[in-house]
Design goal:
The chain is an alpha/beta fold. The protein has 13 helices and 20 strands. Helix 7 links the parallel strand 15 and strand 16. Keywords: Membrane, Signal, Transmembrane, Transmembrane helix.
Length: 514
């Protein structure tokens, strides 16, 4: 494992943030006085005189106009409350004087004070006496050591003169294991935040880290690299039906194993086997770097080739959408490919000539079809363009093509055409509504799922073999690639392409029995 991978960096970062955040919060709780807290705020600061220096002069009547010294008077409403998490007792105040708090009104002189408290807190008024320290002098108001339960408050209405509104107002004092500080003014509809800004910030950071780590874990490719990655060059030839599987496996192996170069060059099962045998005969040092894939067992006469059973491949008959038939019996198929049925109306279809689209003699798909379905070889080729007879004596039009893709595209484009193909390629084209559909065979549907459920009645199937020339060295790219095919990641690719890996429990049983 690389320690500098993205997921490791995020994981370590998340852990570090969590540890640091926890330590900071512990330090914060121990060092910063938060549990006992007196908060205060100015709820009103208005002029009552005719001094217009502040731009807020108002109308006066009665004593506000007649009493001396009221020309520049102001009224201040100061709210003092316990907004901490614990109650505050009289001895929690740290002042050395009799009083507990001091309110300072900068540049103003106090002329009078009125104390109010909310309903249900009449007991607070007993503490607002001169003996308890309630007094004022100049711009300083001394407030007694008033015990406050959590959430309790009182208000001070202070009449002042000698200064404009908006001058600084401070509440000075201290609490044991607590603090005195201004708080935010709220309206009745406001809700205090559930968590502090520090807690919200830490929560957001941790959430972002955890989500990022989860995305990396979910989206990363967990496929383990091939066991024993090897460098070098390897050619994979043979079956065109299995070529898409091998192409994807080759790309995944190259991505996981730097220095490997795997070329997939499919020309048909028989041609691939012969190419492997020829390369082995020329090789001077044992097994050449060539693997041949074959739909079914190799032809006789190649004793040097060593087989590896890879998967169970399912094949299907396909017919042009012009023919509405959905299934054929085995006897119907055999009569078609013996040339005994020349028109689809003989099978209950439309009045349309039969066009047989087949693979060339090198095709493993054709060999499986002949062995598993027909029980014999196909009739002779009679057409080059799959439309016109080149042999006037031939009973039906029959052409041969080089690849499965060519067969599928030709059947899709020619009314009356029938052919055969590897199942997954046929399903891909049929599901795209490209002019053809699959046929059931003897009442059985071509399906890998049916094989996995234990039904072995569908006849058009075969084992996919991977051949090497002798036993390649254990440290060769050929051996490593074949091991990769048979393990988890390789089996996943095989299954995705519609084949049943021989390495699965059901695959082992079928591959061994067949």
């Amino acid at each position: 494992m690389e320690w500098l991978s993205a997921e490791n960096i995020v994981a370590v970062g998340t852990a570090v943030i969590g540890v640091v955040a926890s330590a900071v919060m512990v330090w914060y709780e121990r060092r910063v006085p938060r549990r006992k807290r007196i908060g205060y705020r100015v709820q009103m600061d208005n002029p009552v005189g005719d001094d217009v220096r502040s731009g807020r002069a108002n109308v006066r009547l009665g004593l506000f106009d007649e009493a001396p010294g009221m020309a520049d008077a102001t009224l201040v409403l100061l709210r003092i409350e316990n907004d901490g998490s614990q109650s505050i007792a009289g001895d929690d105040y740290t002042s050395r004087e009799r009083h507990g708090l001091t309110a300072v009104f900068t540049d103003r002189v106090i002329r009078g004070v009125s104390v109010t408290q909310p309903p249900g807190t009449d007991h607070l008024m007993d503490h607002f006496t001169p003996a308890a320290g309630l007094s004022y002098e100049g711009g300083t108001l001394r407030i007694p050591r008033v015990p406050l339960n959590r959430g309790e408050h009182f208000k001070l209405l202070v009449l002042l003169s000698g200064g404009d509104v908006g001058r600084r107002i401070r509440l000075i004092g201290g609490l044991r294991d607590g603090e005195v500080s201004p708080n935010r003014s709220t309206t009745p509809d406001d809700q205090p935040p559930l968590f502090s800004r520090a807690a919200r910030t830490i929560t957001v950071l941790l959430t972002v880290c955890v989500v990022t780590l989860a995305l990396i874990v979910v989206l990363r490719d967990d496929s383990p690299p091939p066991i024993g990655c090897e460098k070098g060059t390897l050619t994979v030839t043979g079956s065109t039906a299995f070529a898409p599987v091998m192409s994807e496996l080759a790309k995944k192996y190259e991505r996981d194993c730097a220095g490997s170069d795997i070329v997939v060059d499919a020309h048909g099962s028989t041609a691939g086997v012969r190419e492997l045998a020829a390369a082995g005969a020329k090789a001077r040092n044992g097994s050449p770097p060539v693997v041949a894939l074959s739909d079914g067992p190799k032809p006789s006469g190649f004793p040097q080739l060593r087989e590896n059973r890879v998967a169970v491949s399912v094949f299907a008959l396909v017919v042009n959408d012009d023919i509405p038939l959905r299934g054929l019996t085995l006897d119907d198929v055999r009569r078609l490919y013996r040339g005994e049925i020349r028109d689809w109306k003989q099978l209950g279809g439309p009045d349309r000539p039969v066009l047989l689209v087949s693979r060339d003699a090198n095709s493993g798909t054709r060999q499986v079809f002949q062995h598993r379905v027909l029980g014999r070889g196909e009739i002779a080729n009679s057409s080059l363009d799959c439309v016109h007879k080149d042999d006037a004596t031939a009973p039906v039009v029959r052409c041969e093509l080089d690849s499965t893709d060519q067969v599928l595209s030709t059947v899709a484009g020619l009314p009356g055409a029938i052919g055969y193909s590897e199942l997954n390629l046929a399903l891909t084209l049929a599901n795209g509504h490209k002019g053809l559909h699959l046929l059931t065979l003897g009442g059985h549907t071509a399906s890998v799922e049916e094989l996995e459920r234990g039904s072995g009645d569908y006849p058009y199937r075969e084992i996919e073999y991977a051949y090497t020339y002798g036993q390649p060295p254990a440290d060769s790219l050929a051996s490593s690639f074949l091991a990769y095919i048979s393990r988890g990641s390789g089996q996943d690719v095989i299954r995705t392409h519609g084949h049943l890996p021989c390495g699965t429990p059901v695959g082992l049983r079928i591959c061994g029995a067949d």
